[in-house]
Amino acid sequence: MSDAEIASKESLAAAPKIWRHTIQANPAAAVAFVNRSPAQQAGEAVFSNRADGRVDVYYFL
Asked: What pTM was computed for the model?
């Protein structure tokens, strides 16, 4: 691995994670979303059902 690649990975690792929000069409879409790369770990995603059947997804990235 080159020095530039190592520095790039270190800067990504040092970047702070923040909570983000998206709305998914249904529970299955919400689960598929948080399992995309990079998959969320335990405690890094929260789901909330909406009255219209869609799902709010709060995720840590």
From this structure: 0.70
**Within the chain, what is the greatest distance between any pair of CA atoms?**
51
Instruction: Give the pLDDT band of residue 9 (cuts 50, 70, 90).
Output: low
> Residue 34, exposed/middle/buried by CB under 10 A (0-12, 13-18, 19+)?
buried
Q: Kindly state the tokens that stand for 11.
A: 């800067």
User: H/E/C letters for each residue in the chain?
Assistant: CCHHHHHHHHHHHHCCCCEEEEEECCHHHHHHHHCCCCCCCCCCEEEEECCCCCEEEEEEC
